[in-house]
Protein 1
Amino acid sequence: MKTIYSPESQRLSEWLRLQREAKGLTMRQAADLISKPHSFIGKIEVGQRRLDVVEFVWYCEQLGFDPAEGLDVIRTGFYK
């Protein structure tokens, strides 16, 4: 099974979307902050693209999310 289709990956995609929404950011605003097209954000949030660990940490830091919380979602399945 490819990890992009795993339950953990799906939870992480959802967590990233929830974090963006909690910050009050649209996909376009988030994309502007990280200098990527908004489709980049959309593909991550719907699970069409995954982030490697370095990209994940960078993405979280650029958008003001705590990457450790995202890792906890992968491990435990629970959102904070």
Note: The helical segments are 7-22, 27-34, 38-45, 53-63, 67-76.
Protein 2
Amino acid sequence: MRKVLCLLLMGSAACSASEHTVDVTASERESTISRFEQDVAEENVIHAIGIYEGGSNHSFRNHPIEIVQIDVQSQGGRGIYLALSSYEPVQWDIAGPGVDAVRGVYVDGYHRHEVTGVPGNIVTNWSNRRGPSAKAEALSSDWGGSAQAQNPGAISCTYTYPGPSGGGCGSAERFMANARSRFHAPVATFTGTYNAQAFRIHRLP
């Protein structure tokens, strides 16, 4: 297992593709990148991404949706699942030469999120589901089981590993546990940062 922290410089990622599976691009502010990476042999794996925002053009009662791009490179025949989390509303735009390798997408967040670029029937959108009845309904329809058995609980956002993120955001461990419960696959990477506009997912070694 490899746990790595690196600094995202303004407008460019200091951690290159040769060092990490997931690249990050942010143009608005300097953020620290928090990572979890581990070697996995399974045919299908999970890549988890957590941010607080995709842009800073928001304020009290003003929460415009921001576009965050997920560029999936060729995965060499391996299937991947994406677990995506943000506090502020995001349209996750999934594209790239390896987009057909995406087997499923799980989205969680405080505000409502959208996903484009993949079929809607592979997306589990658990964002903006607050309150016991909403959670129970989501678990029944999306997980097919009880909360305790199938899912540790909703995540408003998470952008640090391993402990809880600031600003009321939850923990990466719980978010990753949700993804494992949903997809029955191991988490290969978690990439978290406060502000980001794009991620590129490379083929695992």
Note: The chain has three helices and 13 strands.
